[in-house]
Specification:
The complex is a heterotrimer. Chain A is an alpha+beta fold. Chain A is built from 22 helices and ten strands. In chain A, strand 9 and strand 10 form a beta hairpin. In chain A, helix 17 packs antiparallel against helix 19. By secondary structure, chain B is α+β, with helices and mostly antiparallel strands. Classes of the chains: A alpha+beta, B alpha+beta, C mainly alpha. At the A-B interface, helix 8, helix 9 and helix 10 of A face strand 9, helix 8, helix 9, helix 10 and helix 11 of B.
Chain lengths: 605, 572, 89
């Protein structure tokens, strides 16, 4: 059994080498040291260039290797697992270029593709000092000059604004602004007249301290007409569609960071003794570990379905990408500090325990919920779609692409940008399929194939999701003064999506994954039961039931799987993936001597 | 040991003594040597702010830790927390690295030291000396009973061998309260405290170990010492040989009972910072403070701060008034308050957005406080350690204490009322199943003329207590011990939440002369919030409740007053 | 279990203690060695304090929470308690 979407991730991880080997450029020790010195991980990014990563930023139709966003998701995840600054510092070029994939003419997109393949760094400049996520308040202007545009104003808190060769700038092209008053311009910094732009100093940040988070100020910067991406006035629309792709990738960053956090805590809990027992054998500690594991599995299910949806159900991405970008970082913002409680004061050490990595992960992770559309922006996106989501749920609308989305063994259709939509017309098929999925679980239970506890969970879930939609239906949209309760419901919707995603992932893949290294997780639906237990616990409305019986057996059952994946150097995952510290994967052609030019395309065939 | 006669009169005698908050000045003033710019710069350098240490020397902060009978200013645990808030509001690193470390080291001496030892420690502190609490050994951490540093009695002295690591100020302390093994047998009578005069120890038997650096409270000097056959005079023993564990169980009730009240100052700054941002910043055409979600988050933060202060203040006062019960309360407050404060800070960070991630600019203190708060939470007893202290006492509380304990004296809640001296010797090692604080809830329900709305909310908590009693009385054996399963830990969380509710109720009930506290809205909102924490539906909030509290928050901000129970004017 | 005092002979106290400790450790009473230090059979310091609570409930007396620290085996505890109960009259 093989899961080909991990091939790129494995290629990169093994290409960068064992992160515990201090001799490696991309070792944990070195990444922590770079962070402490606030130094950009240039050497590691160069290694990624050598490993061919930029090719996966460019869709195949524009000359690159990007055919599967599921594959890119795991690549981002594996890089973030090692070092978020690297994942951001390198991956930012994808963010800079994505507007071209979504909104540029094919010829323009091919030109941008060539830049990326040549190793150019491209940055995306949306935000301004005074306006933050309120993009339509932006003041940077681009005035037509006949030959092109003249740009004035300042973009701030921009990743790679200083290092970038090109910057994709959202600028006001109509003085009155509005949704058709902004355009995207791909500014080639190398070709700007001297003195017409200035890179702002790097901001000192809480985490990802080596990242080039700076800004750029234009003063009469002249760019040619071909700098315009797509049509004039199309800026907001292109941005809103582009972030549907990039936000999904942000969820992968959270998965990678939380994976390594859990790994560090397991390392410690296995060796450290307290009250004459290994820490991992203290029930309270091991529950914290299995809960974090369950959070990771929930995050993985959510992210993988969203990423596959980019190909199979792109019309619903406005919903699913907001769910993934909200839910996974928010969840891990809680999970990581909880894991830190097991480490105790060691969680704070900057050098002495496990290279001081934990405190870095904790600081780094906080940015994932903040950038590329923060928590509130994503929840707002969901609140705005409540009417459509309620309609879709009541009618039981299911996009025919759902089967390809949830069944991992199916090949994915090519990504078709013309199917992206600002609002989902079909609601959200993953959630809308839930009643059918629950009925299917019931049949499996009746047939003695699935454990009966699962049927009870599925029914409970269905009731909670029904109730949620009733409350969503009663909500009257209030464009600006969105009440806190609406955000609360949007958060619940994200949990409902995650639960529905888990359920369908299990239903559609349990046969296929019944062997291989993660088979025990799938065999008795044990991962699913734990995930549903956790999500139902968070979805349940306030009741006076108090602490029920300790039904944590669902979690406890996962401990052997968790420990096996830890021991064997596998990603904490429903699917088999070997990390670099486990040694090179025997069957992968990626196992080439370091330094040799790889042919990454072969890796995937 | 009794610290002092009762403090006469009403409020802490602020007029007679220097006021630390005023003394430390406007934290936003760039010229203030202990303002935020200087504090942030020192944090960047990983140093304890030298000007800050000098300023605190100048104020004589150590005197706050020295009992009044010994010439210091310590007479009330609640006041100590309030005074220290002035430091924590500005720089947690100084609060921990200058204040708390010394306080933790001195308390065992007040608890079990001889008159001579107490005098010596007091004199040392009063001349701005530093004391360090030598407990931690990396391999054992919070599991003190396994501590290995050995002090072997040899005639008229001890011979000390072993190491202590990651201990605040250990490398530069004038005095060290050393937790040492004096008996090889396992058990709780095998450790003793030695009070070390560092200047008098032979240097050749001591090796200073390297500093451990941390991501939070970066300036705190976490040092280590290795002792090799180091002679220590026999009279260094604090209390009887083998009595250290018992001393710890008493002394740490005081330190754990007071620290959370200090940390309230950190979140006062977090809330103030985010409120400032929300008023200054416009998003989608409106000030952020006008956006409903931001407003709810700010009000919730305010409530969390008030709730935290109610529990912290009541527990600190309980050290004086109900010392036989505080083994449970001090663990509960050290568990719950840092957790509430941390959750509040996290939610506030969502409103602050990208600004919460920048180390420079007008909101730079926020990210420092996030790191520092985490450190303050993990140090001196983590959540799990505190919960494990409560768990074994749950069955007995369930059998009687939650049903039939006598209600506490009203003085427990009267913030400006006098307190009897803190008698360290009276601190009980176990509450013996008595819990007066939660009896406040039933007591109120029995009062004629009780406010029906308050009463309805109180009943949610007495019902919770009944449920807890049912579950805790039948806990399986394993779940009554330190190796208990998750459920027992969750029970302590729910119980601590009920304690917080009882504290809020009592503070409201018994401060009817305070123009803010006597108002019912804050209490209703606080109890509703705590009910929500239990997963209990508090029912619909009265109309305008949030608006009312938001106005209070804004008014305090405009008047530059603290957001805590003290509600005092701040410097600047 | 509080209130009335039954048999306060050393044997009776010992067998009650053994039963209690076996309950905490979830082991058969026969496995509890009455001469082994409690810490070594798995009762740490906090645990030992819980035992003091049980004693107070059972015999309706007040004992130091640290009782089991100073009398760290079942036999030592039984002897101590017998003395206390005996002197109470």
């Amino acid at each position: 059994m093989r899961y080909p979407a991990f091939a790129l991730a494995e290629h990169l991880d093994h290409g960068l080498g064992d992160p515990h080997d201090p001799g490696r450029a991309a070792s944990f020790a070195r990444c922590v040291a770079l962070d402490a010195r606030e130094e950009f991980p240039a050497q590691i990014c160069a290694e990624l260039d050598r490993l061919g990563l930029p090719r996966w930023y460019v869709p195949a139709e524009y000359g690159g290797e990007l055919r599967s966003y599921e594959e890119l998701l795991h690549a981002v995840r594996i890089l973030a697992r090692r070092d978020l600054t690297v994942a951001i510092g390198h991956g930012k070029t994808y963010l800079g270029a994505v507007s071209a994939w979504v909104g540029a003419t094919p010829e323009q997109a091919r030109r941008v593709g060539a830049e990326v393949l040549a190793g150019s760094v491209i940055s995306l400049a949306l935000t301004e000092r005074e306006h933050g996520s309120d993009l339509l308040a932006g003041e940077v202007s681009a005035v037509p000059t006949g030959a092109g545009y003249r740009i004035d104003g300042e973009k701030w808190l921009i990743n790679n604004a200083s290092r970038g060769d090109l910057v994709c700038v959202l600028a006001r092209t109509e003085p009155a602004g509005g949704t058709r008053g902004f355009s995207l311009l791909l500014v080639d910094k190398r070709r700007l007249a001297p003195g017409t732009f200035r890179c702002l100093p790097k901001e000192r940040t809480h985490g990802v301290r080596g990242a080039d988070i700076s800004g750029i100020a234009f003063t009469g910067a002249e760019v040619p007409a071909e700098a315009l991406l797509g049509k004039a006035g199309a800026g907001p629309e292109i941005v809103l569609k582009s972030v549907q792709l990039t936000r999904t990738m942000c969820a992968a960053m959270s998965l990678g960071l939380a994976d390594q956090a859990l790994r560090l805590v397991l390392d410690f809990a296995t060796g450290h003794r307290l009250y004459d027992r290994a820490l991992v054998d203290l029930p309270h500690a091991h529950r914290t570990l299995t809960e974090a594991y369950v959070d990771l599995l929930i995050g993985e299910a959510t992210s993988v379905l969203t990423a596959r949806g980019i190909h199979a159900t792109p019309g619903e991405l406005s919903v699913t990408s907001a769910v993934a970008k909200y839910l996974v970082p928010t969840m891990m913002d809680r999970t990581i500090p909880r894991l830190g409680q097991v480490l105790g004061a060691r969680a704070l050490l900057t050098a002495d325990h496990a290279d001081g990595l934990f405190q870095k992960i904790e600081r780094d992770h906080r940015i994932v919920g903040i950038f590329d559309g923060n928590t509130l922006v994503n929840l707002n996106t969901l609140v705005n779609q409540f009417p459509g989501l309620v309609r879709g749920y009541r009618r039981g609308v299911v996009d025919p692409g759902l089967a390809d989305t949830v069944e991992l063994a199916r090949p994915l259709p090519d990504f078709d940008r013309s199917r992206l939509a600002l609002l989902s017309r079909s609601g959200c098929s993953v959630v809308q399929q839930l009643p059918a999925a629950v009925a299917e679980v019931r049949e499996l239970v009746d047939a003695g194939i699935a454990p009966s506890a699962l049927a009870a969970q599925a029914e409970t879930l269905a009731g909670l999701v029904d109730g949620l939609h009733e409350r969503m239906a009663a909500y009257r949209p209030q464009p600006r003064q969105v009440p806190a309760e609406a955000f609360g419901m949007a958060g619940e919707y994200a949990l409902a999506f995650a639960a529905a995603a888990c359920l369908q992932l299990w239903l559609r893949n349990r046969h296929w994954l019944a062997d291989g290294p993660t088979a025990p997780l799938w065999a008795d639906a044990r991962w699913l039961r734990a995930c549903l237990h956790r999500l139902i616990g968070q979805l349940r409305p306030a009741t006076a039931t108090g602490p029920g019986p300790d039904d944590g057996a669902d979690y406890d059952r996962l401990l052997p799987d968790l420990r096996a994946q830890h021991r064997e150097g596998r990603l904490f995952s429903l699917l088999p993936a070997r990390l670099a510290e486990a040694g090179r994967p025997a069957s992968e052609p990626a196992a080439r001597p370091a330094g040799a030019a790889t042919q990454p395309s072969e890796v995937l065939r | 040991m009794s610290v002092d006669a009762a403090v006469p009169g009403a409020a802490p005698a602020r007029t007679a003594e220097p006021d630390l908050e005023t003394y430390l000045g406007d934290p936003h003033d760039p010229a203030n040597p202990v303002g935020y710019p200087a504090v942030l710069a020192a944090d960047e350098r990983g140093e304890l702010l030298a000007e800050g240490e000098r300023a605190l020397d100048g104020y004589g902060l150590n005197a706050e830790f020295v009992p009044r009978a010994l010439g210091g200013r310590f007479d009330r645990a609640d006041r100590l927390a309030q005074v220290m808030r002035a430091v924590f509001r500005r720089d947690t690193t100084l609060g921990v690295g200058y204040g708390v470390t010394t306080f933790i080291a001195a308390t065992p001496v007040w608890t079990s030291g001889t008159a001579q030892q107490r005098r010596w420690m007091a004199d040392l502190l009063l001349r701005h000396g530093k004391a360090s609490a030598g407990y931690n050994e990396l391999a054992h951490g919070t599991d003190f009973g396994r501590a290995r540093l050995r002090a072997r009695p040899a005639g008229d002295h001890f011979v000390v061998t072993g190491r202590k690591e990651m201990v605040g100020n250990l490398g530069r302390a004038d005095a060290v309260t050393l937790f040492a093994r004096t008996d090889d047998r396992p058990g709780s009578r095998s450790h003793s405290h030695l009070l070390l005069d560092m200047a008098a120890l032979p240097a050749e038997h001591l090796r200073r170990l390297r500093r451990h650096r941390t991501a939070g409270v970066r300036g705190v000097l976490l040092g280590g010492l290795e002792f090799t056959d180091c002679p220590v005079p026999a009279d260094a023993a604090v209390g009887d040989l083998g009595a250290a564990m018992e001393t710890v169980l008493r002394a740490f009730q005081v330190t754990r009972g007071v620290l959370p009240g200090m940390a309230v100052g950190i979140v006062d700054t977090q809330l103030r910072t985010v409120l400032r941002f929300a008023l200054d910043r416009r998003l989608y055409g409106l000030p952020v403070a006008e956006l409903p979600h931001a407003r709810t988050t700010l009000v919730d933060g305010f409530l969390d701060l008030l709730i935290s202060d109610c529990l912290a203040t009541v527990v600190a006062r309980a050290l004086h008034l109900l010392p036989e019960q505080t083994s449970v309360y001090s663990a509960a407050v050290k568990y719950l308050v840092p957790k509430l404060l941390q959750e509040a800070a996290h939610r506030l960070s969502v409103v602050l957005g990208a600004r919460s991630y920048l180390r420079d600019g007008p909101y730079g203190i926020f990210q420092k406080n996030l790191r520092d708060l985490l450190a303050a939470t993990l140090t001196h007893a983590s959540a799990a350690v505190c919960q494990a202290t409560i768990i074994p006492q749950l069955p007995r509380l369930a059998q009687q204490g939650w049903r039939s304990s006598p209600p506490p004296p009203p003085a427990l809640f009267r913030l400006t009322g006098p307190l009897p001296p803190l008698d360290f010797g009276a601190l009980g090692l176990s509450a013996r199943g008595v819990d007066s604080l939660t009896a406040t809830l039933r007591g109120y329900l029995a009062e004629p003329g009780a406010d029906p709305v308050v009463g309805r909310l109180c009943r949610l908590f007495t019902a919770e207590l009944d449920r807890l009693a049912e579950i805790c009385a039948d806990l399986p054996p394993r779940d009554r011990t330190v190796i208990a399963g998750r459920r027992s830990f969750e029970l302590t969380d729910r119980y601590a939440t009920v304690l917080a509710a009882a504290s809020c109720l009592g503070v409201w009930r018994h401060n009817q002369d305070d123009p803010f506290l006597r108002d019912t809205p804050w209490l209703l909102a606080a109890l509703s919030r705590l009910a929500g924490r239990l997963g209990v539906d508090p029912g619909a909030a009265p109309d305008g409740l949030e608006r009312h509290l938001f106005v209070e928050l804004l008014t305090r901000h405009q008047d530059n007053r603290g957001f805590d129970l003290v509600n005092r004017h701040l410097a600047g | 279990m509080s209130g009335t005092i039954q048999d306060t002979s050393v044997d009776a106290i010992r067998s009650w203690l053994v039963g209690r400790i076996a309950f905490y450790l979830q082991r058969p009473a026969e496995e509890i060695d009455a001469d082994a230090p409690l810490v070594e059979i798995g009762l740490d310091s906090v645990y030992a304090m819980t035992l003091s609570g049980d004693v107070e409930e059972r015999f309706d007396i007040e004992v130091e929470p640290t009782m089991a620290w100073d009398h760290p085996t079942v036999n030592a505890l039984a002897g101590y308690l017998h003395g206390v109960l005996g002197s109470r009259g």
